Amino acid sequence: MTAKLSCRHVWKLFGEGAKAFLADTPSPDAAALSARNLVGAVRDINLDVAEGEIFVIMGLSGSGKSTLVRCLSRLIEPTAGEILFNGENLLAADEKRMIEIRRHRMGMVFQHFALLPHLTVLDNVAFPLSIQGMDRAARETRAREMIDLVGLTGREAFYPRQLSGGQQQRVGIARSLAVEPELWFLDEPFSALDPLIRREMQDEFVRLQSKLKKTIVFITHDFDEAIRLADRIAIMKDGEIVQTGTPEDLVLNPATDYVREFTRDVAQAKVVRVGRLMQPGDASGRPRVAATARISEAARLFDGGETLAVVDANGAPVGRLERRDVADLMLRG
Amino acid sequence: MTASAITPRDMSTSTTGRNNYPVVWLIALAVFALLWLAPVPGWIDVYPKAWEIPASRWISAAMKWLVNEASFGLFTFTEFTRFLASIIEAPYRLAMSLLATGFLSGQGSSAVQVAPPLSWVAVIGIAALMGHAAGGRALALLVFACFAFILVFGQWQSAMATLASVLVAVPIGIAGGLLLGIAAYRHPRFERALTPVLDVMQTVPAFAYLVPILFLFGFGPTAAILATVIYALPPMARITALSLRQVAPEIRDLGRMVGATRRQLTWRVLVPSARDSLMVGVNQVIMLSLNMVIIASMIGAGGLGFDVLAALRRLDIGAGLEAGLAIVALAVALDRLSQAFAQREASPLADRGASWPARHPHVAAGLALVAATYLLGLLLPAFRTWPEAWEISTGAYLSEMVKWINVNFFDTFEAVKNAVLLNVLIPFKRLLGELPWLGVTGLLAVAGWRLGGVRLMATVAILSFLIAATGQWEKAAITVYLCGVSVLVAALIGIPIGIMCAENERVWRVVSLVIDTLQTLPSFVYLMPVVMLFRVGDFSAMIAVVAYAVVPAIRYTVLGLTRVDPRVVEAGRAMGATRGQILWRIRLKLALPEILLGLNQTIMFALSMLVITALVGTRDLGQEVYIALTKADTGRGLVAGLAVAAIAIIADRLISAGAARTRARLGLADSGGSAS
After folding, report:
1. How many CB atoms sit inside 10 A of residue A37's CB?
2. Are A205 and A184 in contact, with CB atoms under 8 Å apart?
3. In this predicted model, what pLDDT tens digit does every residue of A81-127 receive, in sequence order?
4. Cβ contacts of B256 on chain A, cutoff 8 Å
5. Chain A: nearest CA to B367, how far in angstroms?
6. B257: nearest CB among A39, A73, A117
7. Same domain assignment for residues B384 and B427
8. Does the predicted interface ipTM exceed a cut of 0.95?
9. In terms of residue numbers, what domain contains A248?
10. Same-domain pairing of B402 and B325
11. Residue B359 belongs to some domain of the structure
12. Which residues of B touch A15 (CB under 8 A)?
């Protein structure tokens, strides 16, 4: 697994003399910070995001997740640490280099869409390209492709206020993708939407990602959303990461009571994958199920039988799934 | 997070403050009474002449030095300022030629007209087209009516001269304000330096800086335009800084995220996103420019202001009123036009394939109109200038009417005026005149300390001391008395009206229309009917000031009452409170900070109007400034003007601190941008 983006001991402290303090005291605890009147918004964050991975940072409001994602793109200047993007330390980059990286390699979707009210849908989507100085014809062609991708064809000449919330966020998504970013930040992109629209947009997001295979850092306060979308999740609390892992890891082995609080009401069958529950052995002739499928999907395939044949991505048999194990898991909740 | 961090501290100060309040105040008042009534040395009562700071002489000397001796080596300071004036002169000449005089060749009276000015048909047509483009048929009709009114009543030439000044001053004011505002937004240190300068620019009466401008830039329209820009620019700078700060942080993040440079971030992201609130500033600049152009007619702007001023001096009520109404017509047209452009919904993109005239129908029609009327003007002179024979003048009738009113109601008016003068104005004036300067300064300092702390105390005390030390105390007392009485009356009228408006939507609709119109009127206009009915003097001044200053009292009361959280009102109703209880015990209480700010604005309005009423013979600082203007005495005018500014700033700081305290006590969030 190659890391596209890595954080090494990233800190963001708010308050007078934060930098000097952190240089003297390499890893202060909460008490030491409050004694100095400093607010530790992001504390000693280490994480690696792999190429093509959806990495979700989940936390409640005030947990520092929004500050962290802004540190990753240096919209907020971290107090200390290293942020490696393709192996390059972003914190050592000068302003010009940062502008270069943001223009061509990063895209971001915002919670409240952040559309420019004076521009049409077409001009909003083309805006990042126009900032780069791309000529009109080229950027509009590209923008039209993106608008088509998010299903807004026909609305190019509309202004943001003439669109619904869901449509506005589609514009935000199209805009962030217009520069073909390698790294895609989504800061609570669906939190401002109604539940039904949110669901629809999540599906849309999954569809897009299956096509685009971007490296994604996705921020949310909604644990269900995190589980639905994530390859891996980092749970944040008070500026620190409490646990990082796949949804299955979190649900099956919560590291702390805090994580357990979130996972308690999650139906395990919707999270755990077949590979985790399968047993060695052969079950040829039985209906086949992929090792990456979730248990809840596999459950529908038994069709009266006791076992399923588990196969890998190439269709080669790797083991078998017992109905009893599935039932146990589902009864546990 | 910040709120929770601040609240406990605030609570503790406010509780200790409450405990100490009566004691501190009692001591202060006792000392004050002692200074006032007890036989004390004279210097406590009246600031001795011998100790006066000869500030006015210093300023005059400095001015003289600037004008006569200051030099940058290659060229003198005066040459530099005259050069600036000539830069402004060029666009002004162009606008003037287009609208009023035509393009001339040659000097003075021997000049030959090369090309005529725009025909009145073209100007009215273009104005109406702009109205149509911005606000549809209704606005086009209104703008047309305003301009037609000016034309028919024979005010065209003067109105076009005024319009030309406004057309030059407004873009300079907008551009200057925008740039200053952006600089203030970007550099907090620059903003800290700029804010007091803007404060002074906004509170020093315009009359005061007419004289130095006159010296540096010469008598004439360019000096008037410069004075106008100084007057109209501060609100634009403030609104720019504020509205850039209010752009959603996400929009700023977006700009940086797409890799915008600082310049791109400012001009392509922040400024366009803040367009709506920036347009409020643009409207302000237009209205203030119009207001000031009128005042600046005293230093050679000519136009409608000059007509009004001349008529006022001749006491030719009819002519003055007509010119005044023409100002109103111009003000209403410009105000509605700029507001409509601000609120205009951007239409979906026009088809790029269409021909140029089809994409820009209004511009095309305007150009066609100019060409057509030019050609017609060559054939028919009536197209060039509106024939005098077609002009209507109601001046004579108006004069007759006023005369009739005066003949028949003179005694009534006189009785009212005298009763108020004798029973209210004069005793109050005498009282204020007698107060010892040291005592007042001390009392103000105590108020500053209690309301805002040591810094406010120092500011207030120093300003008050300076008023006394520059020998302005007596005149300042008269200013405070006139201002105080007017503000009191304005508040007594305005706040109840505001309450009524907040209670009744239909009343508010009518009242808001009236006060919107009142607010577009240049302050000059208020003087005329008052002088007609009550002649010159303090009473007339008071009426004019009240009429001008009542608007913010109404507006802020309504604003404060309607902003009260409806859930709190609902809770009150659920508890079974009556309408009256809800009003008195919930809404008015919670609206108090806003009402205080409205009072603050009322004072500011009153002070600015007060200076103008110097024209109708008051004896206060305004008169001092006005006399200095007529004598071209820079120092005298500026010192008196700065004294007015000092009064304004003292009142503003104390009331703002009081409002902030009330707000904190009520647990309301700060409504300004300071929360971030």
Report:
1. 12
2. no
3. 999 999 999 999 999 999 999 999 999 999 999 999 989 999 999 99
4. 75, 102
5. 28
6. A73
7. no
8. no
9. 3-266
10. no
11. no
12. none
